Automatic annotation (TrEMBL), chain A:
GO terms for molecular function: iron ion binding; oxidoreductase activity. SUPFAM superfamilies: CO dehydrogenase molybdoprotein N-domain-like, Molybdenum cofactor-binding domain. This is Xanthine dehydrogenase family protein molybdopterin-binding subunit. The lineage of its organism: Bacteria, Pseudomonadati, Bacteroidota, Sphingobacteriia, Sphingobacteriales. Keywords: Molybdenum, Oxidoreductase. It comes from Mucilaginibacter achroorhodeus.
From TrEMBL, chain B:
PROSITE patterns: 2FE2S_FER_1, 2FE2S_FER_2. One of its GO terms (molecular function) is metal ion binding. The keyword Oxidoreductase applies. This is 2Fe-2S iron-sulfur cluster binding domain-containing protein. Pfam families: Fer2 (PF00111), Fer2_2 (PF01799). Coiled coil: none annotated. CDD domains: fer2 (cd00207). Residues 80-156 form the 2Fe-2S ferredoxin-type domain. It comes from the Bacteria. The keyword Transmembrane does not apply. Keywords: 2Fe-2S, Iron, Iron-sulfur, Metal-binding, Oxidoreductase.
Amino acid sequence: MSETGKPISRIDGRMKVSGKATYAAEFNQPNMAYAFPVRASIAKGKIASINDDIIRKEAGVIAVISYKNAYKLKPLDMQAQMKAGAGFLGENLPPLQDNTVHYPGQFVAVIVAETYEQARAAAYKLQVKYIADKAAVDLKTELPKSTKPKMFMGEEAQVNEGKAAGPLAASAKKVDHTYSTPVEHHHPMEPHATVAVWEGTDKLTLYDATQGVGLTSAIAAYFFGLKQENVRVMAPFVGGGFGSKGLWLHTLLVAMAAKAANRPVKLALTRQMMQTNVGHRAATIQRVGVGTDAGGQLNVLRHHTNTYNNLTQFFEPSGKQTLVLYKARLREVTYNVAHLDRSTPTFMRAPGETPGTFALECAMDEMAYQLKMDPVEFRIKNHTTKDPVKGHDFSSEFLVDCYRTGAKRFGWASRSIEPRQKRQGKYLVGYGMATATYPGGRSAASVKVLMNNKGDVTVMTASIDIGTGTYTVLAQTAADALGIPVEKIDVKIGDSSLPPAPLAGGSQTTASIHPAALDACVLLRKELISMAIADPGSKLNGSKPDDIDFANGKLFVKGNKDKSDTYLDILNRAKRNEIEACATTLPVSGAGLTVPSALCTPSQTPAEQNSDIKQYAFHSFGAQFAEVWVDEDLGTIRVKRVTSVQDVGRIMNEKTARSQIIGGVIFGIGAALMEATEYDKRWGNPVTRTLADYHVPVHLDVPPIDVHFIGKPDPHISPIGARGIGEIGITGVSAAIANAVFNATGKRLRDLPLTPEKFFES
Amino acid sequence: MEEQPLFSDLSEAERKALEELMPDEMGEIMSSGIKRRHFLKLFAVTGTSLLAANLLGIEQLMARSIPIEEQPPVLIENGINVSFQVNGSTQKLMVDSRMTLLDTLRERLGLTGSKKGCDHGQCGACTVIVDDKRVLSCLTLAATCEDKKVTTIEGLATGNELHPMQTSFIKHDGFQCGYCTPGQICSAVALMGEAKNGDASYVTANVREKKKAVELSNEEIRERMSGNICRCGAYPNIVSAIREVHGDKAVAQVWQFAEGTI
């Protein structure tokens, strides 16, 4: 039986449950010192003075580093950085290079001391005086000065601008409302941390909490003017990322500190720094218009997003799903982006779709209610089987099955279109649903496979497991491709010196590295076959390669299992200790976010099976169903159960896949009901500074979650057939919950999170 | 002069291994005393390390790293001498008075299984068991641990055999990134004791009526585990894992494809 798809337990599980999985901050080094950063207490302005001389005399202090004495990094140069694969710096602000402050919490100094306690105490004592300028700290105030960006990540940012107003006004039925979403923070359980170790002046090792070892190595190499192969980044285990663990400034800061101290240095961010120094999801104010004819056929969709950025070109792309879902004659998707003196917004789990599906899918629900149509039927009526903008067929799409299966499993039929029809004691009960979607990305990747003469196989690639199950599913793929048990396979990832793989982001790891792993195993098998055929001592001697099959650690002649030879015998007779094979797979759609230097020969996969975006549109789809209980006296909303049906291509491991979707849904429950970072409107600093103020879901907030997969392989993304699964689980969840609140109470809540005071305001 | 018991930081299994491997030298060793790092060195130089590893179980040997230095590397301000048991072995060290139990475990004793998630007692990743109760080690100063018995995630397994809670977490996929996991598991293990004692919780129906033992419903488990945050969202799987250990019978794993699609 095939290993792929089986719900096997994680192969790294034993290490994780026994405390032996080692995360970045745990790579303690001999003679290591500790760094603690100092953050700006103003939003905008200049540093006037720093009392660093006094602090240098504090017990244990080794160095006080600020713009006055910091190592000079290579300056920003986007073209040169892109060429070096070093474009994706979290914020375009190499640390401590001048005395300018761009946001509250920016690193302005770093203390290095013998112990953590000493570094922290000295950092608190460091006095930095500023000359403050007037700062832009509030989105609504700054919107009049916003601009309309032309591009977002290589795609047109303003689609059909101004064209929807007429058709919307002329539609028989229309919905036109404003929806808003707050700042959210990723808050992975492991705070970012880096241990920096220099070897001389030209070799650097970083133990780093990162989603991309290759990316981190390229960026660090660029700014320190080193060869990329001389910057080794290690991240065997990473405690969650959700988009926050690209390269942020602390990683450069600690390498600068280690250089200054001439010792290995560790820097672990505090939970407070996680709110200011490693990105966030920007707030959005979205206006969505939906127009249909009298029968509920969509004429027009309009989705305008107001948001902000700082120090990068990134902004929250919350119109993305509106370019993919539903058949409509016209759609307009546009953005206005203001500048705020706030820490830099970045990618966070389903960037764009998370706030975007809230707005679009609530508006769709509002329209269904206006039409007195069932929201599932309204969506099916307007379903599209083609990319509605580019016109390509979807590579594989079972969205209608998701709706139908979800409705059945959830018991949707018992829902009344009219609100306030169901009660449980003092609670009003409501059902809501929404569509989920996320693009099916794929990047170039290289994977090396090594087999030794004991029959052990090692699969190696510079990918990362941030909790996603990469270790486990890679072993499953290799087990199938070589016909050996999973237990015989060791997976080595999280090391930039391994063959390059994309960063663990954008739901693309599985889609990218598995085709390469498969190819590498095929190459390895081919070599074993050639060795056996050429070997007079083999029963396969003289056979044709095409006549040979494999299973259970053996090669055999098809139809004649007695004519066989084991991998071990083949290797031992040839006196080979080990053999290896390396494969690079390069999708037609391009290298993507991968480090461009492919190590191995690219394979020749036909375009039809190789992510050709000129032929097909690659997207995953799903349907989210939620039941809520609302206490009208207190304004509290509880999610009682969720059904999530997902069409994400082939499932590599039913157990870890289900866990990823559950995790996404829980992230969505957090976004719907509790998560928000609030900023002081005078000074611009976050006032929700800890996990006591920034609420994320805990055990008691989480209901039973029923996950189902369509499980049909995508024949066009790759020969493996899997699309990514990390992000789609969160999309649509907050809309399904808000729609359920309407069904329960008749109240439309259009401003996330749905906290009690908003229930009473509406 | 402080008095140091012989074999102060050797575990039971390690002492046994020593006896079995070097019966002749035991007398001498007994009289001179041996510390764990000597023990490990001994095994390395005598080439018996593999044998020892098999005997002890690699897991256990690797679980406890060798302290690099006995003495703190630098002059410690407001140093406080403290002695407490960690996973069965006595630790004597001088700590900075500001040093938390969590940082002591991670930075001084090489026990990095306990995690720092927030350092404010808000996330539960640092949960360890102190004298049979779950404790947030980031809110516990090491200096307050004199004579206490600390169990960390590294101390739950017996040799190669995982604690049933650890096994159940693997089976039910009660984690993804694994960072909150040691805290979740320590919390869950201590929770069993609280249930046995009949300790009430927020969702206990009648707190006045103290029962002998609390039956842990899903609701009870969820409430009692709410101090341990998991951002990956493994909560339903964690509840299944705990239920299985508590109920002593297998809990079905829930995963399936939509009907008729495969």
